[in-house]
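Researcher: Final request for today, and then I'll write up notes for the group meeting. The sequence and the SMILES for S-adenosylmethionine follow.
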Amino acid sequence: MTAPDRRRDTSEHPWRGIDLGVYEQHMSDARVGQLQQLHHITGEQLAAYPSRTIGVLGVAGGNGLDLINPETTDAVYGYDINADYLDACEALYHDTLGDRLHLIETSIDRSVRIEPVGLLIANLIVEYVGAEEFAAFAAANAGSIGVLSCVIQRNDAAGFVSSTDYASSFDALASVSSDIDPEALDSAMSDAGFAALGRCEYPLPNGKTLIRQDFRPTIVVARL
Ligand SMILES: C[S@@+](CC[C@H](N)C(=O)[O-])C[C@H]1O[C@@H](n2cnc3c(N)ncnc32)[C@H](O)[C@@H]1O
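Model: Predicted protein-S-adenosylmethionine complex:
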């Protein structure tokens, strides 16, 4: 089957210029260990908030989608700015998830409206959207979100991009990335009408820490 052509926007964004293989080799390098840890965290997110409808913002190549049980899931929505990543996701997961899998090329901001989901996962994307814009996106979609579970990274002594043979491939991301302060994210999400459910920290081999923060809309306006 020919993959659908999702490319609808020719304007350049640095994430569109990063090859998925390079990204995954960098993230899974033993010194980085982020792909493996994110896979583990996705398993925890799915177990903590069992949902028949699941959304993933910044789905990339679908790290962790293998942990979704098709028997107990009606729909999975993956959003990403890079259409090539979505094609890879489709190729990898169409067999297991079938027509439940919906992949959408979009740039996440407050103008985007998502399909209603019980669980929305946003792992390592807030850094590229910005805490305020991400909270505005969440506020605009509050009626479509059961729980929003995010992972951000704290860089501590390490640089934003970890040191590997591939690190220079990510230089262009500096123009769109920023460090996210977990307290500032809590505060922006509170202003957006979301209550914090909890926070977990996951140390990485290179001195960075992944921080998971979960939120629930305080006013439920739709049944999911
Ligand atoms: C660091 S990767 C994280 C991938 C995956 N969530 C994981 O944890 O393994 C960031 C992903 O978000 C996507 N992305 C970055 N900015 C975006 C935006 N504004 N809108 C949609 N996707 C974006 C990138 O293309 C990339 O796939």
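Model: The mean pLDDT is 92. The first helix runs from residue 20 to 28.
Researcher: Thanks, that's everything.
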